[in-house]
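User: Please predict the structure of the protein below. I'd like the answer in structure-token form so I can feed it into my own downstream comparison script.

Assistant: Understood. Taking the following sequence of 231 residues as input:
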Amino acid sequence: MKYEDTILAAIAGFVDTLGFAALFGLFTAHVTGNFVLIGAALAGFGTGVLLKLAVFPAFVCGVVLSSLLVRALPARHARQGARVLHAVQAVLMFGFCLAGVSVAPITQSDSLPVIATGVIGALAMGVQNAHSRLIQRPGVPHTVMTGNVTQAILDALDMLSASADEAMHAAVRARFAKTMLAIVAFAAGALAGAMGLRYAGFWALLVPACALVGLSLTTGEHERVATPGRA
């Protein structure tokens, strides 16, 4: 699908922001950010240490699950790996939505239902993070934007350079356009996630869940699974 990375970037921004705002500063997509928050909480500058500790193994399980599912596909169905991952993530996203709705309003960060909600969200985003590693296709990262912003700045400098030939400029312009589209989509998704939480609570997660259902039905024909021995 032509705009798959753009949609996935918007989903990542949406879910990460909603989870951060609703679950005491929890990152579900950018899970390593939780290490910073755990350190701050242990020093007395935050809450929800147990919640943030619990989501890391959940994120790992999401990645492992994705790998097992994709690598288990018969060779003749290997190109359907992307659809499988989108479908699994969609199911987990619906679960994240329903779990959040069932525990709202959330007042205690380390209660078991709240931790379970965060775990399901981390599982879902673990699947999305694994996607770009398991499915080989042209594209840009869509869950963490730091690398994309860095690349966009470098590409902008290259486009301003007079020393590069036209072919290089064309390649850089194409990459810059894709990268900026993902960055803008992530930012728009972040804003939408915050507004969705404010006006719809965890029900707002139906938006990324339905988007993932759409992706599961429309993508996967051109991808190649990153499994040794498969063409």
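That's the full token string. The chain has one domain: 4-225.
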